[in-house]
Fold this protein.
Amino acid sequence: MEPSSLRAAYPVLREIAYLNAGTCGPVAEAAADAARAELHVATDDGRWMPYFERMIDLQARQRAAYAARVGASPDDVALTTSTSEGIVRVLAGLDLGPEDEIITSDEEHPGLMGPLGHLARRLLTHVRIVPFDQLAEAVGPATKLVACSHVSWVNGQVAPAALREVADSGIPVLLDGAQGAGAIPVDVNELGCTFYAAAGQKWLGGPVGTGLLYVDPQWHERLPSIGPTYLNLKDPGAGLDAEQHVDARRHDASALSAEASAFAVAAHEAIDATIGWPAAYERSATLAQRLADELATRGRKVAPRGRTTLVSWVEEDPAAFTQRALAHRVVVRDLPGWPYVRASVGAWNDESDLERLLALIA
């Protein structure tokens, strides 16, 4: 199908050049309709066994969809509420102490840096920060984990491919995939990562409060859950004898609503049923590269980036530029602590969105 069929699925694009999926993706009308339909059924019929049966079915569909986006088996994917929750579940499950070292980079999101800082204060684990492109080389004898972005939220650079060798050597690698899953092709087997945490509300277009955590099958038993609750148990009725699921479901969030899963599944299908995910990846990357090239032509310093969906460039006052863009119905964002304005370019965008942004560049 034509890309216009995908664009038409998102009402926000009728009036706004929405270039901020790196924070939250645009909402497909069909996704909002799916969530509303679940709420209407719950309102009219109540929330008893049929509601929970639909909830379980929708969660299975959501798990399969998210697993497809990272090239994994559904058995290896937990449903979480955010990238950060997945990160926290991994950090809490690993046996780390004062003699251990975690390697991370100088371009990490607070969603990773916050949990790492807390871990360092609570367990005295040493966290060493190195340049993003030197992560693999920084690994040493004390390193027990490498935790970093798959795609840098700052500029769209991709993590070094050599991290696969780190994981192959036995040191677990945790990737923050918030700007990866749904934005670019992801295959956890090719990456060789041990864990991959990602968000549902960004490039996957789902609601806030959705996410995923991939756990390498070899780590299903090795990574303890942080506190199994109802959804994590194979036989909840067994009381104290109840055991956890043996696969990644042991790391599922404790509560996931039918409405949220319906939203997430329909958001995924909005792309799958129009242009398809492979075409969406290609279109997003091509449009983002076009924007980067045009910005450079106009004299802007574009941050180093990979073939991803993020484009960041230097502005004298990034916050002021973002507000000026908003006044023209163009949504981008500035990055606190960095000199950049960042545009997130999705397959739902088109050249008119880019031109509206570029028209603001002096």
About this structure: The chain has two domains: 3-27+276-358, 38-271.
